[in-house]
Amino acid sequence: NREIYDALIDPMIRAYVINRADKVSCLEWFSSIGNLGGQQMTSIHGGNERMPLALARQLDVRLNAPVKAVRRESRGVEVDYAEDNGVLQMLYADACVIATRIPEAMAIHPPFRAIAGELADELTYNRGLTVQLGFRRRPKSKAIGVLIPTVEHNEIGLVWLEHNKNPDRTPAGHALYSVYFDESACNDWFDRPENELADFCCNFLVQLFPELRDELDMMHVTRWPMAVPNPATGIYAKVAAMKQRIDPSDRIQYAGDYFTCTGQNSAIYWGKQAAENLIANRTD
């Protein structure tokens, strides 16, 4: 009924895709309940960057080197990229994984347009507006997150209590909150000044945790113009069709946020799938 929708379904989906439940496919409910309902939440000691940094130490990583084109050749793949100074370079490899969003994948490798199909035309992205606030005092609450229904707040849809997710996130006795704005609120709030965003979010947190009043000691605002693919009605059918068009024996494989709901788990899964396809079909 409406009460269950308002109090349970909407806030869980809102936390999952930073958009309201009536804006997305009903299939998203099964994904959110499977990932958020009754699951043990885990966190990486040292922060989320620890894993990619550990991987990067084993690889030849080149930053500020935007890829311009990816081409199949008879026995490999050619990648054109620009160095820091703008000079165009070419890299030859046995195989390649294009791990980008759909617009970038099509720009650097036009044949992907046929694979993406209708998904390329219809997939949209929710914006991400996150305000992180640090406080000199830590409330007693042991919650790691607060999922907020639309009926309770039009703008803010999710709050993570980072200090409860992992003890190394803050100094002893301090608190750190990540406040996520709903996509529907971004038209009004996305470009607001940082101080205004911080004041708005701080006032909201004080309503939930009165102990935080006058204890703010840091803030940080992050804006992502394209943060999370929006799983609108019909999108998952187009995702399934796109997956069927991928040739697992191709030297060019794909991994990106459009395969499923965005997150570390899905990124690892589809990256692993792309790697397994390349390994299984390597003949040289």
Offer a concise description of the structure.
With 284 residues, the chain is an alpha+beta fold. 35% of the residues lie in helices and 24% in strands.
Description:
The protein has 284 residues and is of the alpha+beta class. The protein has eleven helices and ten strands. The chain has helices at residues 2-17, 27-36, 50-56, 102-108, 112-116, 118-122, 162-165, 186-189, 194-208, 235-244, 264-280, and strands spanning 67-73, 76-82, 88-93, 96-98, 124-135, 145-147, 156-161, 175-181, 216-230, 252-254. The strands form three sheets. A five-stranded antiparallel β-sheet has the order 6-7-8-5-9. Strands 1-2-3 form a three-stranded antiparallel β-sheet, with no helix packed on it. A two-stranded parallel sheet has the order 4-10. Helix 1 crosses helix 2. It is globular. The model has no long low-confidence stretch (mean pLDDT 92).
Task: List the keywords.
single chain; 284 residues; alpha+beta; five-stranded antiparallel beta sheet; three-stranded antiparallel beta sheet
Can you count the helices? Answer: 11
Strand order of the largest sheet: 6-7-8-5-9
Low-confidence stretches: none
Report on the biggest sheet.
Answer: 5 strands, antiparallel
Helix content: 25-40%
Cα-to-Cα separation, first versus last residue: 59 Å
Please state roughly what percent of the residues sit in beta strands, choosing from under 5%, 5-15%, 15-25%, 25-35%, 35-45% or over 45%.
15-25%
| Whole-number mean pLDDT | 92
Q: Find the count of extended strands (DSSP E, 2+ residues).
A: 10
By secondary-structure content and strand pairing, the structural class works out as alpha+beta
Cα gyration radius (Å): 21 Å
Question: Which H/E pattern describes the elements?
Answer: HHHEEEEHHHEEEHEHHEHEH
Shape: globular
